[in-house]
Design brief:
Layout: H1 2-18, E1 25-33, E2 37-39, E3 43-63, E4 69-76, E5 83-87, E6 92-114, E7 121-131, E8 134-145, E9 175-178, E10 186-191, E11 198-203, E12 231-235, E13 239-244, E14 250-255, E15 258-264, E16 269-273, E17 313-314, E18 318-322, E19 329-334, E20 347-348, E21 355-357, E22 371-373, E23 376-378, E24 398-400, E25 405-409, E26 416-420, H2 429-438, H3 440-478
Parallel strand pairs: 2-8
Antiparallel strand pairs: 1-3, 3-6, 3-7, 4-6, 5-6, 7-8, 9-10, 10-11, 12-13, 13-14, 15-16, 17-18, 18-19, 20-21, 22-23, 24-25, 25-26
Helix pairs in contact: 2-3
Amino acid sequence: MKKITTMLCAAFLMLAMLVTASAASNVSVSISRSKKSINAGDKVTITVSGKAKSCNSGGVEVSFNSSVFELVSGDCVVSGAFMKDFNAGSQDGVFAFDSASDISGNVLKFVLKAKSNAPTGKYNVTVKFKADSTTASATTTVTIACEHSYSNNCDESCNKCGATREGNHSWGSPTVLKEADCQNKGSAKYACTNCGETKTEALAKADHTYDHNCDTDCNVCGAVREVVHTFAWAGSETEHWQECVDCKVQQEKSAHTLAADVSSNETGHGYACTVCLLIPTAEAHTFDSVCDDSCDACGYTRTVYHSYSGRYTVDEAAHWNVCVLCGAAVNTANHTPGTAATQTTDMSCTACGYILEKAANHIHIQYDDLQSDANGHWYACRCGENSETVAHNWDSGAINEEIGIVTYVCADCGYQKMEAYEPEFVFSVESVLEAVKESPLMMIFALSLCGAAVIIIALVVVLIVLGVKNRRLKKSVLTIEPQEE
């Protein structure tokens, strides 16, 4: 049926052309595509637009590389034509008007599909637009692109089309083949962690090597450089000089010129030199406590940092925070009464919780942490009353022999006390030998004792020997018998 319709349209078109009194004029055509580039197997829509004056009938013819594309569908879309048709097999279409009409707009739309084996490249698609006896043509280009396929991220050549790219190697850590120095470049070898490919790169020359900032000669090649010393004042109790902060070279040594008034800095106070501003014989500052910010001797002011307790210290009228190091108070404020006391609830300060008025049936609510002083520790109730004071539970103590102090800590509340440390002397051969090693006088004393001990032992031996002889003598006298006459 489709073929019959097409044949009838063609016959009618030919008849119309035979009876046309005049030919169409100002005929033109243009072509556009939905995609500039497609891959094999993809489709592209081509739109043909035409213009003509006083046209009775006409047609459109499409041509392309049939080894690359196939025509999927087409539609003649001439506006106002009473007859229009497109034959995909012959790749052309026809149209006719019942009277001469102007054409301005789309006349044909068709779809091309790139074959699956289409090679990459640029291909022309051409259309011819005929209005009565006048023909115009137009061409567009469709690119068949490759969906590149590579063996891995490092592959530089497409497996399909051979297109090249820069491989995305993942180079591992270098293996140094030759160390660089300040005279020669080095080299290093890299291996890709993906494909195993290797490359060798040069290593830049190393910097010259010097012992310090003021060293003029390179330790490797002997290259000489100019250096600039950085001097600062240094001194002793009697002299000062300019000293390089890097190499310690000295210059401009001279005696101090002391000022008449006492000066001070963060390390101490004393009479400063008017030239170098150093204090040759500075005395250490003295402060009353770790939180005291003013030296008792010179008035030097230092920055101190209090360590305030997070819990309020209270009395009947106010509350405040206390430094646990020096006892200084901050944030002192009067109590702010809360809800009035009832039969079962207390009236407390809304800021610190201190009980301003007890409930009729008040129950002591103790703070979680123990309060303590030198005498013991206890729990405090928010109402101001304390539990019974309990004696501290001291540990065995931590000895600091350098300062001669032993520190004891209560195992229950953490309160600490310090006492002077007096080591107990235990007599032993080892202790005597150790004392002899540390003091020549002890060695002399020990030798003296040894000498005295030897003399005493000798006297004892002599007395024992004499005693034995005496007993033998007495025994021999007693056993003599008178001889008979």
